User: Fold this.
Amino acid sequence: MTPDAILDHLRRSPRRGLALRLDAMNWLNKLDGYDWSGIYALHGDLLHLDAYVGTPTDHTEIPVGRGVCGTAVAENQNQVIPDVRELSNYLACSLETRAELVVLIRRNDEILGQIDIDSHTTNRFQQEDVALLEAMAEILAERWDD
Assistant:
């Protein structure tokens, strides 16, 4: 499935809320090099693991400002990390993870959560991946609530 086909599928889907988020993560997980696909929902100063596909993680709650996910919220900007081994504040979900991409999900100026993708390949994420997740984040934000 191509990125455009994934977005078209999600736009046409009648799903909302958690069901839509889980569907989105299932489709992302089929892309080459998307080895863990998840969404964290922001509640106060904590990110809570929401929908995900991949190996279970111990990081079900992440404080704002901690790790790549928490940094994205604290800095209010997406994060593209070519090699997580070069970060001092990296929270390892898997010893195999080499690259990470985090794209914020926003409704107007409010951060609802984020899409978090891990890859076992360094330098995996490019501008096309950011664009895909930003478009997906818009769809998810529109239908965030059940």
